[in-house]
Amino acid sequence: MRERITYVQKLGDSLEPSAITVNAGTISGPEVHAVREDRLTFALDELPSELRTLLTGTQDLHLRWVSTTAYETESFTSLPKERFSHSAAFQYYQKLDSLSPFIQYAKDQLCQQADASCTARLDSLSKAGSLDISYDTVQHVLRVTALWPYQRQQLRAATSHRQVRTEVGILSTDKPQTLEPHEIGISGLLTVLARTRSPRQPCSASRPATATPSRPSQPSFSPQRASIQPCNSVWLLTAPIAGGQLHPYAYLTLPRTVFADKYQLSDPLFLASKNLTALRYSTQPVDLEAPEYVMTQWGSSVLLQLAPPRSERETKAKADEGEWTAEIPLHLRYLSPEKGGYSAVDVPYPAVFWACEAGEGVAFPPNPFEKGNLGYDGLFDEGTVFWHVEPRPVGAGRRW
Predict the structure, then answer these.
(1) By 3-state DSSP, what share of the chain in percent is helix, strand and coil, each rounded to 5?
(2) Is 159 in the same domain as 280?
(3) Residue at 371 is within a domain
(4) pLDDT at 366
């Protein structure tokens, strides 16, 4: 088993080595404003027998938030296998607000009765921003990665066992003069607990990033409150960088209560009226007539290419008028009758991003902080760079 604990601070917030204490398998320091990521890597023979048996017959498995609710449904939808070999074969989405059932299951299966540190660590997942579980059949390892959002927190970590290699990084973002727009720069301190008495010499590195936040000033998307035909509105202004083959996209993950009509989104005139270019992908098949309560499929996903202003002059004109807007029409299925006559339908924010496909023969070195298998990335060539737009609710908020 290997363990990697990383604190990442903002530019200018780095700590001096003298502020950090390393002693007998622990590291401690002052409170810091940082993101924390914990990653545990297990060999196949270190896993419980039930999980080991499941993974033995699996080529790749990537999980985020698992629901414990059992009901009659077709859990997975097929993904296009004929285009990219690096994409997954099936996809499933289930809304889950809390990790409490998973935390309790993990404590029952993984923690010994007197192991308070194991229990406390799993309980901390209740405050995590994300949890990723991935199995790599080539290396026969299971990786569990938890991320806590940027917040004030105590700098403290300890190795769970002397046989476990625990690496700790205390890093901050860095912007050297040689940094390219598509690169991420980091610098800071590294140590291996129970093997070193002090943090190593400061380190600095920069790597190409395939996922990058777009400009903070670029806005977001808003679901408009409506009846049977809700509509998503996406606002964008300009591309994050000049030049290159950049195209904006919106990737929607839709529960079975809502769907997009692929025939409507195949009409060029209709698309142009909504500032859309083309429907690049849609889950198949999608029943356009069935009510929600007879559906067995979890839902669907859609990738749409947006149509931004075509010139700098048009961009400036749109900026003077307000943000440029693209509309994505959706359709609400008939729902089961509810007391009071109203039902709330939760739909996740779409992933809105600019994509720039890498040229032929261009290879990106692996970045240990980037996530893959997000749904939309499997619909592009490997090495595609994504510039993400931050979602911000407007008007109706998060719920329809």
Answers:
(1) 15, 40, 45
(2) no
(3) yes
(4) 65
